[in-house]
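Support request, priority: normal
Reporter: lab tech (M.K.)
Component: structure prediction queue

Hi team, I submitted a job for Purine transport regulator from Secundilactobacillus mixtipabuli yesterday, and the status page still shows it as pending. I've pasted the exact input below so you can check whether something in the sequence is tripping the parser. The sequence length should be 537 residues. Please let me know if I need to resubmit or if it's stuck on your end.
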Amino acid sequence: MTVKLSDIQSINALKDAKLIAGKNGRNKLVDNIMVLEAPDVNKWIKKNEVLISSLYGFNHLSKEAIQEFMQSLSDNACSGLIIKISRFVDEIPQTIIDGCNKFSIPLLQIPKDTSYNSILLEVMQLLFNESNRLLDRYKKINQQFIQLAIHDSSLSKITNLLSQLVQNPTCVFQLENEQIAKITPANSKLEWLTGTDCSNRQPISKHDYTNYQYYQVNINRTDKPLIMVKIPQSQQNLYLAIVQQNSELQDIDFMAIENAVNFIQMEILKQEAINQGLRTYANDMIDDLLNGKIAPEVFKNTLANFELDSDEEYRIAVVQSLSNDSIEENYFRDNPNNADRVVGLFKRYWPKAVYRIRQNRIILIISEASFSNAECRTNLQKITDQLKETNSHHEYQIGLSEQCEPSDFKHYASQALKTLQIANQLHLSGPVFSYNDLGFYRFLLQVKDPKELTSFVPESLLELHQNDSELFLTLKAYLENNQNMKVSANTLFIHPKTMSYRLNKVHKMVNIDFSDVNQIFELNVGLRILSILDANQ
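Reply from support: The job had stalled in the queue. We restarted it manually and it finished. Here are the results:
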């Protein structure tokens, strides 16, 4: 409510009232008026109430009791006291006058012939009129936002309307790392807010017309704090901001702000639904492109939808996330913001990148003409580094295909994925893997049936793998550590003598000559093939 004690003073029933004390509280808000005939005020007084009393029973109270009574009025945000004299008291106790001055509670003295009823009726009428005025204003504000929603609403139009209503500039922004980013509308005069630190924002006590939690942030450009409120259910951590540039916000302005928050929320949900529909349609087309299912007669038109050219060359990149060296099967489904971040980083280097987000990986089509091979790899390394900075508990890996034309997307999408899978299974170092990084092991991509790979495994090694896992792991550790006995023993947490004993057993069973380069090469190939087969079981 916006009725003040000064408004109460102006009613006809109080024309003969005298302001005795508490002059500094004349701007206190008034929500109700009640008759007080007992000093036990704590039991029923409400915030912003004016009390009428003839001080019945107060003539028997001690000074300390009256001081306690005044403290209770202050603690409960009493807006004023109206006291009738000459019925039970001839004069207002000085302790009450002192208390009213101390707590800035206006004290009005009325003659004994002033009717309580006339005061109550006029004040209640004043409050009723104010309620009607506020209700009417709320309806008008709400109707303006409804009309906007009916006639092609947008975030820019909503913030423009709000700016007119509160007479201050407003915008919607995304909070990233506690800083203001991505301001809407894009050409807003509030672009200077970008980068503002909001980490020290302070909550604002709720107003009569607020349902949401508001915060204030001190900014250098104005002496008035920025007001911000979170948009509920927004996946992008969006806030509405009001800069008190022209005037300080009044209670009634929060009606408009609350309406704006509600309609911004609906607009975001609407746009998300539309975008989801478009994204689903686009995903279906991208899936068909990557699986070679686009009919020849619509192939070029489909490419044009994604700004791809049938005569240009591209690469396919596959991104996956690992935690504790294990692939996270549902990572991008469960962390859509991180998926968006991956895409956003790719688009810094390849603005026209076409992407498909799956639950466990992201597949991207990037232009080959944009960068050289070395530059492309450097950019991918930068992307994984930036992802690691913001999410240190996860590793990101990228598999990269060779250059290809759109007609060969199916083959090269498979190549990028298999490159990533084989590099992972072979425990190759580094977050970025291209087809050429596999070296000799590229032949593994040509084998369609994993069971056929066993033909490349020496028979003696295959028998060791099947019959004695302990000796197999001993041989594997020895070869992976360049035949260093001590390091291999440490890897297996065994004594070097135990390591030597086991290797002698391996030598007898498999008849290995560790000085034969060709035999060691065959064993290394076999070990890696068996690792891949074990991973696929």
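The two ends are 71 Å apart (CA to CA). The chain has a mean pLDDT of 87. Let us know if anything else looks off. Ticket resolved.
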